[in-house]
Design a protein that fits this description.
By secondary structure, the protein is an alpha+beta fold. Helices cover about 35% and strands about 20% of the residues. The strands form 4 sheets. It has a 5-stranded mixed β-sheet with strand order 3-2-1-4-5. A 5-stranded antiparallel β-sheet has the order 15-14-13-12-16. Strand 2 and strand 3 form a beta hairpin.
Length: about 450
C-alpha cells in the first residue's frame, strides 16, 4: 500500500446542518488501509438540547451526554490523533464540516486532506443499488454494530475502506464524471458527492447563503446530477447563481414532499413557485331570493365561509365540479355553467325551483362538510433511513396533522397512540393534502387505522 495514514471518522450530531448543529458522538480510527493503528471514541456534550427525533435516530439523549466532555475538552485529542493523516468519512463533507465548525467556535482552522468513501465506492465498487452506508455494507456483508452511533458507523466505514483500497490497488485517484463538467464555477464537486442516494430535501443556495430553490427527490444524488446537466432555461438561471447545496435525508419520499412545502413557504426561494395567499381563491356560499344556496369561486378575502383555499380559480372550479358529480348539485348554482342548461344527471332541478330548497341546501352543506380524507384516524407507514426505522404520516379526525420517525429497535409501535408519541406536528395546507391524496391514489402503502 501507499504508506499513507487515514483517519476514518464518524460523528453524530444534534441536527443535519453544520451551522446550527453540534457534535454529540465522535469516533476516529487511524488506519493504513490494512489494519487499525489507533482509535479514539467519546460521547460529546453538545451544550444544547438534543431534539427528540434525533434521540429516536441515534439513541443518544440529553441525559447520556450530560456528564460527557464538551468538544473543547477533547479538541486536543482530535488534533493529535488525526495529525498528518487524510480525513476519511462516508459523505465526508458533513463529518468534516461538523468538526471544522466545532474547531471554528474555538478559534482554530481545522484543515486536512479529505476522501469520501461514497465517491470512492461508486468508482471502485460499481454496480450497487445504493451507496448509503447501511445499504452498501449490507451488500458487502459488513456488519454494523450500533447503526447511527459514531463508533459502529466508523468501524463499518473502516471495513468498507479496506475493500476500496484492495479494489483500487491503493491508487485512490478519482476519475472525472460527465456531470462534473457542468458544475457552476462557485460549486465544488465535494458538495454534490456528499448527497446520499436516498429520499430527502435539497436546498440550493446563492453566494450569500440565501436559498434560491428547494426540492425533494427519491434519490438526492441522482436528482441533483440530472439538474446539473440540464440545459433548460430555469435550470441554467439557477446554476448561474448556485454556490452551495445542502440536504436533509428523510428516508420517505412522501415526507420529503411535505417538508418541501413547509420549507418553500418559510424561505420563499426566488425560483420556487410560492403560493400567494393574497391572490388565492376560496369557495364562498350565498343564498338567493328563493332560499337556494349558491357556491362560487371568488378571490380570497379576510373572511372565508369554510376555509377552502386554492392557488388558482381553476383549482377551485375543479373542486366544485367534483362536488357537483358526487352530490348531484346544480352546476349553475355552483357558478360553473352560467346561462347553460344543466345536465339532467347532475341537476335535480334546483336551478328551476323543481327541487325543494331544503333538500338542495342539505346536499350543499353535506358537500362542504366533506373532509380531506375519508377515514377518520390513520397513519401511512413509510420506509425510514435504515431498515430499523419506520417513518409515518398521521391523519387525525380526517385531517393531516404531521409526520414522524420511529426506531423500531428501541421502541415498539403498533397503535395510533404509540405513533402519536413520536409525531412532529405540521401545518396542513391544500398543497400538502393534495400530495398525500395523490400518493395514496398512486401507491398502496401500509396503513394502520382505528377501523
Amino acid at each position: 500500500m501507499s504508506g499513507k495514514l487515514y483517519s476514518i471518522i464518524d460523528v453524530e450530531t444534534t441536527g443535519g446542518t453544520t451551522h446550527s448543529s453540534r457534535v454529540t458522538d465522535i469516533s476516529i480510527f487511524v488506519t493504513d488501509g490494512i489494519e487499525v493503528l489507533d482509535e479514539f471514541s467519546s460521547l460529546i456534550n453538545p451544550e444544547m438540547f438534543i431534539p427528540g427525533f434525533i434521540t429516536q435516530l441515534t439513541g443518544i439523549d440529553n441525559e447520556m451526554v450530560s456528564g460527557a466532555p464538551t468538544f473543547s475538552e477533547v479538541a486536543q485529542q482530535v488534533l493529535d490523533i488525526t495529525a498528518g493523516t487524510t480525513f476519511v468519512a462516508h459523505n465526508v463533507n458533513f463529518d468534516f464540516g461538523m468538526i471544522s465548525s466545532e474547531f471554528r467556535r474555538l478559534g482554530y482552522a481545522y484543515e486536512l486532506p479529505k476522501l469520501c468513501t461514497v465517491r470512492l465506492a461508486r468508482q471502485f465498487i460499481p454496480g450497487h443499488r445504493s451507496y448509503g452506508l447501511g445499504k452498501i455494507c449490507e451488500d458487502l456483508g459488513i456488519p454494523i454494530h450500533g447503526r447511527h452511533r459514531a463508533r459502529g458507523d466508523a468501524e463499518a466505514t473502516v471495513e468498507l475502506f479496506k475493500i476500496i483500497m484492495q479494489a483500487s490497488g491503493g491508487d485512490l485517484n478519482l476519475a472525472s464524471e460527465k456531470w462534473v463538467k457542468s458544475l457552476p464555477q462557485q460549486l465544488k464537486r465535494e458538495q454534490v458527492d456528499r448527497l446520499p442516494e436516498g429520499a430527502g430535501v435539497y436546498y440550493l443556495y446563492d453566494d450569500q447563503g440565501v436559498p434560491i430553490f428547494i426540492g425533494s427527490a427519491g434519490n438526492l444524488f441522482k436528482k441533483v446530477k440530472t439538474f446539473l446537466v440540464s440545459k433548460a432555461r430555469k435550470a441554467m438561471e439557477i446554476k448561474s447563481q448556485l454556490a452551495d447545496i445542502d440536504f436533509e435525508s428523510t428516508g420517505s419520499e412522501l415526507i420529503a414532499r411535505l417538508k418541501v412545502m413547509s420549507a418553500i413557504q418559510e424561505h420563499q426561494p426566488v425560483f420556487n413557485h410560492v403560493p400567494n395567499r393574497k391572490s388565492a381563491y376560496s369557495v364562498r356560499m350565498s343564498t338567493d331570493l328563493f332560499g337556494y344556496s349558491h357556491l362560487e369561486v371568488s378571490p380570497l378575502t379576510s373572511r372565508t365561509d369554510n376555509g377552502l383555499i386554492f392557488n388558482t380559480r381553476r383549482e377551485g372550479e375543479a373542486y366544485l365540479e367534483k362536488l357537483c358529480k358526487q352530490y348531484e348539485l346544480c352546476p349553475q348554482l355552483c357558478g360553473l355553467k352560467p346561462g347553460q342548461r344543466c345536465a339532467e344527471q347532475m341537476c335535480l332541478g334546483a336551478c328551476r325551483q323543481l327541487e325543494p330548497a331544503e333538500s338542495h341546501n342539505a346536499r350543499i352543506r353535506q358537500a362542504l362538510s366533506e373532509r380531506s380524507f375519508s377515514k377518520s384516524d390513520f397513519v401511512i407507514i413509510e420506509k425510514g433511513m435504515t431498515p430499523n426505522e419506520q417513518a409515518f404520516v398521521m391523519i387525525e379526525d380526517h385531517e393531516y396533522i404531521g409526520y414522524g420517525v420511529v426506531n423500531q429497535e428501541l421502541h415498539a409501535v403498533s397503535t395510533l397512540d404509540d405513533f402519536r408519541n413520536y409525531l412532529n406536528s405540521d401545518t396542513a395546507s391544500q398543497e400538502k393534502i393534495a400530495i398525500i391524496q395523490t400518493y395514496l391514489s398512486k401507491n398502496k402503502p401500509r396503513v394502520i387505522s382505528t377501523t
